[in-house]
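In response to the reviewer comment on reproducibility (Comment 2.3), we provide here a single inverse folding case reported in full, input and output, so that an independent group could reproduce the run without further information from us. The structure tokens appear first.
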């Protein structure tokens, strides 16, 4: 197996070590970002849902920045959410603060029953800028 080209944000979060995963891996011009949750640096969740959503996006943006990307480079988004029937609109009211203008990436939202103590998780695939891809 080839060595993975792993990307870590400047402030590594406790969850990466605790759960043994990489925040992102570069492969063939793409960046595959693990699900980012609304965790504080110590791995604990933000207590309020809206703050968790914002923190998840901030954590995502830190990983993207470490790879030389921004959300504009994101081509695919998957969101996992506890109780989306009552929370989807609250989460999606925050999305424009981070997604910017159209055209938007593809997106899938999945309702789940468990996210290790969190209520919202976002994972993405981004196209690396040409300079970073080489």
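Designed residues, in position order:
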């Amino acid at each position: 197996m080839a060595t993975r080209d792993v990307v870590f944000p400047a402030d590594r979060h406790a969850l990466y070590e605790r759960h043994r995963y990489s925040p992102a891996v570069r492969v063939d011009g793409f960046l595959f970002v693990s699900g980012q949750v609304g965790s504080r640096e110590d791995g604990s969740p933000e207590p309020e849902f809206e703050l968790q959503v914002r923190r998840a996006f901030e954590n995502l943006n830190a990983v993207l920045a470490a790879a030389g990307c921004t959300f504009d480079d994101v081509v695919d988004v998957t969101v996992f959410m506890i109780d989306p029937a009552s929370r989807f609109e609250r989460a999606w009211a925050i999305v424009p603060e981070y997604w910017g203008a159209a055209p938007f990436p593809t997106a899938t939202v999945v309702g789940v029953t468990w996210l290790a103590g969190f209520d919202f998780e976002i994972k993405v695939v981004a196209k690396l800028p040409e300079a970073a891809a080489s």
